[in-house]
């Protein structure tokens, strides 16, 4: 009977260890489930961030195009102003020469 009692004692110990391991496995399963939920949440956050970045990039690209168009228009206007200024300067110079000639002609008379 001693042999049987030893065997039963060993089997009870094994059974107790198996119960402990089952509890540990349950705890680990719960932790893995929590980590899985966190990963899903983080994935959603990352997806939202990526979408937001793509939206901002598209908006910035649109602003760049608008600025390029506006800059082209401003550059064209500056060229027109420079041409007008050049014509005006030539007209003023011609007028000064005419005024000088008239003054000289009236002084000489």
Task: Tell me about this structure.
By secondary structure, the chain is mainly α. It contains one helix and no strands.
Question: What value does the Rg take, in angstroms?
Answer: 46 Å
Number of discrete helical segments: 1
Q: What letter string, H or E per element, gives the SSE order?
A: H
Work out the strand percent.
under 5%
SSE blueprint:
Layout: H1 2-108
Give me a quick take on this structure:
This protein is mainly α and 109 residues long.
Task: Provide the descriptors you would attach to this structure in a database record.
single chain, 109 residues, mainly alpha, 98% helix, 0% strand
